């Protein structure tokens, strides 16, 4: 924003040079980017006003900050009230949408004479980057720059029905704006209308049909407060920005609406002649100032400097905050032009910038070291990332958005919980308008991107939150882990003997170990996008906590990967179903010093029998009071020659060990025989010859 140094001096009696004022403003939070001396000797300051400081989009707003820093009195123009000189109001203002228009003030002035504005006013407007037009329009722009309140003047003779109606467009409506462009505004747009139709785009631009011209003698002066979001939407939809919309979007001062109109009316009477006949102020939603508690001790603590209580109150009072002392602390009510002040921290920031950041000494912070201050959840996630990193996997970070096509890619049916997605109303990209319920589509896209650059192997993972629509307010959030391992299938000099499924299955053990999860079970999965027979569901306490497996050949074909025999292994786990909020204490268990005895067992069972059930039979259902079974592992799975149709052979490696003594071969032979008989009885199987 451009602001005149001489104009600023009209409101404060100070002798500081333009350079000093520029430095003062910058150090108080209003950055002066540059200043330039004009031919008439005036210095123009260019300020970078942050979006939260809409009050400083005016000369008086900037002057208020300068006066607060310099502790000088702010001298504002006298506002004349015309209520005692006008008659009954014939002109009516109807606000049909009080949510979008909280206040509308209209002043009717008769007998004005349109001409050029005074030279001094035109020069100030030009210095502020505004083109002079005529005395009436220039006065509205002058008050805009002076108070930050947008105004508009209508030719009263062109308004129909002696009324203004503030309403939304009920359907797409046409209006020709002051730039002579006919625009179609969509339904819902806030409009200023007379008895016959739209005469202005509320808060953005007036209509050409009611513009002030050289023939204008009677005007309606408009000053209003409009909802910032509404004006922002209108400006965006119509591709139209103005000095007015710029300020309305950042929120204007609702209590300054009438004063700005009265100030403009006084200037019009002084420079254009005429008389005020009516003042209408429709204010259905009065402003109520918040009351914010302020602790003086917290001011000292936050800023690290001792500021006297009277100085604190003085700073806030100079900024026109209402301060009430209560029990050594304050209850502070910000003025209506400071809508950005909501919290105690906001007040402390105001105190700091007016007190002077350069007056606050630089002190190294005191840091107290804490041992084991990391939460159990974060500790486990850190170990999980480390385990995956050691296994050769790289972490990815993706956006939380996905597309409808991703459901079809993974053949996720309508009844699946992953279809309960949340749709974003205002997405960053049109197609990516759904919050993720699965991390796998993002990893598949990461994989394809790497393949396009010639990658033959891709090992990646992601830990992130997914979202489910429960139909009850906010979506349900869940923390997930997804892992992807891709191999192009090309021949290599050195190859791992393990199939890709067992490589991805083998990764599950360090993952769950890092999460302190030992009691889990794997069963055959029925995920449609995973290869049948090479996939498994992860069960914890009998409930599903995720799955793993190879991507099915049909799904791989849909990915259109240009490779000979691509293999893609996947894991997806609900981490919050594994990581409990209770901190688990770890204990030390010494290595057993007694030797083990190993036995193998091969059994032929029905093809429908799952190997995990047999493992459970060995571990859990057999009476083993001394807990001699140390581990059970599958080392062979076979179907084919010498195995009957509908049967399969599964071989297990069992390790026996005692914690208290050396086992005898005869003891283990007896126990092993009991296990074999137990399994045959329960499964109806037979020993493989």
Please provide a written account of the structure.
This protein is α+β, with helices and mostly antiparallel strands and 689 residues long. It folds into five domains: 2-70, Phenylalanyl-tRNA Synthetase, Chain B, domain 1; 83-282, Phenylalanyl-tRNA Synthetase, Chain B, domain 3 (3-Layer(bba) Sandwich); 292-356, Phenylalanyl-tRNA Synthetase, Chain B, domain 1 (2-Layer Sandwich); 376-577, Bira Bifunctional Protein, Domain 2 (BirA Bifunctional Protein, domain 2, 2-Layer Sandwich), CATH 3.30.930.10; 597-687, Ferrodoxin-fold anticodon-binding domain (Alpha-Beta Plaits, 2-Layer Sandwich), CATH 3.30.70. Helices cover 29% and strands 26% of the residues. Strands 18-21-22-26-25-24-23 form a seven-stranded mixed β-sheet. Strand 8 and strand 9 form a beta hairpin. Helix 5 (135-147) runs antiparallel to helix 8. The protein is elongated, with a radius of gyration of 38 Å. It starts with a strand and ends with a strand. GO terms for molecular function: phenylalanine-tRNA ligase activity. It catalyses: tRNA(Phe) + L-phenylalanine + ATP = L-phenylalanyl-tRNA(Phe) + AMP + diphosphate + H(+). Residues 592-688 form the FDX-ACB domain. Its EC number is 6.1.1.20.
